[in-house]
Amino acid sequence: xxxxxxxxxxxxxxxxxxxxxxxxxxxxxxxxxxxxxxxxxxxxxxxxxxxxxxxxxxxxxxxxxxxxxxxxxxxxxxxxxxxxxxxxxxxxxxxxxxxxxxxxxxxxxxxxxxxxxxxxxxxxxxxxxxxxxxxxxxxxxxxxxxxxxxxxxxxxxxxxxxxxxxxxxxxxxxxxxxxxxxxxxxxxxxxxxxxxxxxxxxxxxxxxxxxxxxxxxxxxxxxxxxxxxxxxxxxxxxxxxxxxxxxxxxxxxxxxxxxxxxxxxxxxxxxxxxxxxxxxxxxxxxxxxxxxxxxxxxxxxxxxxxxxxxxxxxxxxxxx
Length: 320
Ligand code: NAD
Description:
The structure is a single chain. The radius of gyration is 19 Å and the shape is globular. Helix 8 (245-251) links the parallel strand 11 (231-232) and strand 12. Strands 1, 2, 3, 4, 5 and 6 form a six-stranded mixed β-sheet that branches. By secondary structure, the chain is an alpha/beta fold. The chain is built from twelve helices and twelve strands. 49% of the residues are buried. Nicotinamide-adenine-dinucleotide binds at residues 103, 125-126, 129, 156-162, 179-182, 185, 199, 213-216, 235-237, 263, 266. The site of nicotinamide-adenine-dinucleotide (NAD) has 26 residues, from helix 4 and helix 5.
């Protein structure tokens, strides 16, 4: 893991850029601007997210590695100057880090970056992410014997990905229930024909597929005990509060598709722009269906959880 400290007192930049496994090839990952308690927690988040990106890149057969920049939102004094500085750092890496938006990063930030570096994606990859999550859900349904045209899917969070996914699920015939903390987002999802549940209930109301598309870490031990679903497959990163909870889900016969398998559509779309000059195609994103089916079958055959099996597969790819 290589860490580059991001420091620009004039612009108010405090943060870190983590390159998880540069020996594997160019790093792919976004720039996160968030409130952190301390510089240490900001650096730790960059490292954790970069490592998660390496998993995502490897499992989706992208020749490269994971990276992530995390910036302390509250320290920023001049946003354009801050993004210009970060863009200059990205440019100085000469393509060994290819970046794009993450939480808290705006369209204006992208414009500031593109003035100083070519190593930033201007593609909107949200639709690619939603497309890939749908493929993972379809695969998990086929694996578990759930008919998606009759399935009840609970979507937590109808932001950019969740709303797009809701539309896709409804077009597939699924009955969708949504929840969001922002009323206007709920209203937009309701206008597509989705049902609405309270934000406290969406995780534990009975459904075939639970689809977390809001925050990471939302499945903890209490939620595992209360779940009434057969499958968990969503866009949010690091859905499990702790990875050993994958065992608890398996004990309850709940199929958990690791989030870095489900939500790889965006990085597939964006990374290939950098690697070959054209975005990842719909066919390359739709390969998430077959990949998910293979991982779920492999886990079943090996008597391990889908998460454990996926991590084994990633380790083999890393060693090649
Ligand atoms: P977004 O910010 O557009 O949407 C998130 C939604 O979740 C918002 O509408 C927000 O109001 C809602 N929300 C927050 N807390 C909630 C709660 N407690 N209950 C219900 N709703 C809540 O983000 P997005 O781009 O749609 O991404 C969704 C998730 O997927 C994030 O975790 C993101 O990191 C992950 N992800 C996104 C992409 C992408 O291409 N955008 C790619 C990979 C992973």
